[in-house]
Amino acid sequence: MAISFLASEISDLCLGKPPLRPLPTTATIADAVLALKTSGEIYVSVWSSEHSNSVVACNDTGCCRCVGKICMVDVIVHLCKEENLSHPLDALQSNVSDLVTKVKGQIRHLEPNSSLLEAIDCILEGAQNLVIPIHNNARTNLRKSQLTQSPLHAPTLHYTQEFCWLTREDVFRFLLNAIGVFSPIPTFTIEDLNIITKQTLTIHYEDPAISTLPLISHSLSAQTSIAVINKDNRLLGEISPFTLTCCDETVAAAIATLSAGDLMAYIDHNGPSDNLVHLVKMRLQERNLSAMLDLMDDYYNPSSSSSSCCSSDEEFGSTKNGAVGRSIYPGRRSTAIVCHPWNSLMAVMVQMIALRVSYAWVVQEDYTLVGIVTSSEILKQFRSVVAS
Questions:
Q1: Are residues 188 and 144 in the same domain?
Q2: Cβ neighbours of residue 15 closer than 8 Å, sequence gap 6 or more
């Protein structure tokens, strides 16, 4: 029964998925930031086209391809480079291709009639997003007519074919809806299934946040997180790429000036305290990073024109002093997602899906860090029913 379920077509997972708004490779990083904020999406897709008129004409030659994706974490890491901290506005005018992750296989194109098993195999091979064509000519023609160049919006591609994409979360949710067909695997504990990874990305609470940059890039690629621990190896919190995707580009200033523990507080869903904002600004002044300081002032000034790009504070989040920018997407969280070795696989899955993450920290009762369980390891368990 499980094997026949895994033969389901992935078109079943695409129902209700919105079409991607493609960003051309000729766009700037500032264009990508604007597209992220105005769309409310965590990622923006970057597309290449062989046509000078920017029309993606999808056909059998495959000239219409998604070459990558960008999220706010990519922008933040880019701005954290020493030369970019001094000239952030210049850095935002760089070509968007500078941020596109050059990881082979991270984006995979599949046909709607591909099987769920094929989708899982692609994910286990490293794919984070599966690009699926949407076969709806009426909606495609309407969408095509709506996508016109406007000085108020980031540049987009006109295209004759619409696409959506699927993520691990989509596959997870689909599996959970039919979890019974995989019985008894979901009832086993994660310890019994031996899916707890002991090697984790960690940083001490008092370490400088800037030292997390390589870890942030790695965790974004692996879709995991960075554990913030004390000297007794107890989990105090995390610096999560998912949380950073819900922030704005000025978080680069906080990463460059704060400790790991203070950074956790800075990116909390309630927004940073006035004291932390003041501390960041003071340290920017000490390092003569006036351009980054000006960028922060633009975000934290209630009358700033930078806030006008958002339709409302309610839609994108706001700080308590009225400035838009700390949380630009709904659903941002501030605490680490934890489970215990004795929890069942199904319980862990439900928690991960409910909180929209692809991992959970495994801790003992006193919060001593044991390891991490990831969506990849869980998917391997469902994939194994075919080989058994």
A1: no
A2: none
